[in-house]
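check this one:
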Amino acid sequence: MDALIITKFGILLLIHFGLIFGLSSIASYYQEPLFLFKRLNVNVYKIPLVVNFLIVSIVIVLSVLAFIQSKISFFILNAAFLSIWFLELGVISGKHFFSSLFENDLPKEICIFIGFILAINGGYFTLMFIVRLFSSSSF
């Protein structure tokens, strides 16, 4: 691998690590277990930094393997992971941040919908940044 590809995957690692770390910090602040952990009947409010790094390492290894196969599978895999991270972020922010922002004047469903819309926009623009990053041929 040349330096350009290593730099691109380093930026991808920073993106996923920032999202996971921010998501776990927000979830621990609001004492809200993550949606995926609720499905596993695990009530974890604070994810240790080592576990965050382990999750991101698995995502990066899967991304490298998908990139070796084809760029399309790489983009689809990253879109799936970004959807998971931003969906979690949208639900948590909709339940807690936007309901307190609007002082409980709006129904909880509308607050969750606002959080969902903003999270999907964030996921889309992050994915477009990754597409442009990996489509470039130079720094």
Summary: The two ends are 15 Å apart (CA to CA). DSSP finds five helices and no strands in the chain. The helical segments are 3-29, 35-39, 49-69, 71-101, 108-135.
